[in-house]
Amino acid sequence: MNKYGVLLIGGRRTHQEMYAKIFKKHPLTSIVGVSDPKETSSFRKNLSKTLAKEYQVPYFDDLNLALENPQVHIISSTPEVEKRGEVILQCIEAKKHVYLDKPLCGNIIEAKNIASSANKSSIKTQMFSMVHLPWVQKAKKEISKNTLGKLKALHIENIFSKGKAGTIPYNKRRIEKTSVNKWTFTEAKREMFDIGVYPITLVNWLTNDIPKSVIGITGNYIFNEHYELDVEDFGSILMKFESGINASIIAGRFGWTSHPKSGPQKIVLIGENSTKIFDANSPRIEIYNTQKPFVPPRYNPLDPMGMWEETSKEFLVASKNSWQPFYSTQNIAELDINAFIDCIEKNITPEIDAQMGYTILKSILAGYISAATHKEINLSKI
Amino acid sequence: MTSTFIEDLNSTSLNSIQNGDIGIPKFIRYIAIVNQSQKLKKYEKIIQDFTRSSFLKNETQNIKVNDKSTYITKLLKWDSGQGAIITISIDKINLSERFDVLIIGSNGSIYHST
Lengths: 382, 114
Known about the structure:
The complex is a heterodimer.
Chain A: E1 4-9, H1 16-25, E2 29-35, H2 42-55, E3 59-60, H3 63-68, E4 74-77, H4 81-93, E5 97-100, H5 108-120, E6 125-127, H6 134-145, E7 151-160, H7 191-194, H8 197-207, E8 211-219, H9 224-229, E9 234-241, E10 246-253, E11 265-271, E12 275-279, E13 284-286, E14 323-325, H10 332-346, H11 354-373, E15 377-378
Parallel strand pairs in A: 1-2, 1-4, 2-3, 4-5, 5-6, 7-10
Antiparallel strand pairs in A: 7-11, 8-9, 8-15, 9-10, 11-12, 13-14
Chain B: H1 5-18, E1 25-34, H2 38-55, E2 61-67, E3 71-77, E4 83-90, E5 98-105, E6 109-113
Parallel strand pairs in B: 1-4
Antiparallel strand pairs in B: 1-5, 2-3, 3-4, 5-6
């Protein structure tokens, strides 16, 4: 076994599909088992057992016993959002380093407890994010160099080009609610929560500032699946920070055929002297040739939004080849997990830890309240 | 009289929307980078009018944040669910005007990047 034993909580049809690959590959980590929180459905347990079988490691029915195992040093945590609050606390209390799927959890009290517990502990926590991607790092360096002048505002967007667009019934409008209790569904996700977490994380990380208030809107623009589940497929949040910086984010999902690659991913930095746009898809070359154009996969009733590639191989999504960005070859999970292991090795705090996860969640949940009430929401009241 | 680049951009985009190329327009993210601070307000009006033309009516909520002569950002909401984020910012170093536009519709999207 390598230096750090990794216990996976959660299995297939979660981000564990990609995290497990990296923990298996990393020279300092070995996967030692898979487990689930108590009261996990047999459907989910079977997905975890499938992952355990694939990695040829035991499945532990009792998470408490698995956490007592001295061979477990790191937890890769991807349980259902509704169970994260309790599970992450258990892991921290068991003195295990925790690699956290995003968002931290779905409840602000639970998030606060996680952050508080992690802050008192010597263990490391890191939430999955985009901060280690090269094009994102360039934006951070630009701020450090101060070439744009003092940062005044920024805009960040991340929209996933997956799912079959245009299925939303004509003129259907969903009314947002101030509180959300259910996050996990089969057919779709709350996209301002699940994708919005990426740009909101980047805004907080790039500004290194304290968010003061938010104004949010959610939309059901594209998919019938989201409408039927009463969840949004798109969200936008305007954030005001204590230093006077303002930021806007947009996030969501808009269909396989709505973008030539995986979707728009941009950071716009507005300094007092200049404005600069950073784009995951630029610089790039563009190729137009005799190959067949991209065709979306056939409808997968268990994954219509194309979220779980490894579990849905019979519904293979063809690659989009016309845009070839220069720097798209690096694996986001690999960069992120490598950074996490590095923090453990060097005993330094990860850039996006549980405390940051809590801060980010506040802005997202306040975004829902704002979208429902049409009011600006002061984050000190969340 | 010759038209300006932003007028041509908006008119071409509007034609595409009216042709039904992207289904029903739902959200507009419009970034204009200008070379004179006097253009901040001028372009704010032009872009705002463009969003109103795209969604065929006026917004019900219009939130503005700005920093004097540096930038204007607006979040607009329509009672029919549509939205827009508009940003007009100044570039005192590279004195060329640039535009980055994303218009999301129910069936597809329109992009422009100068």
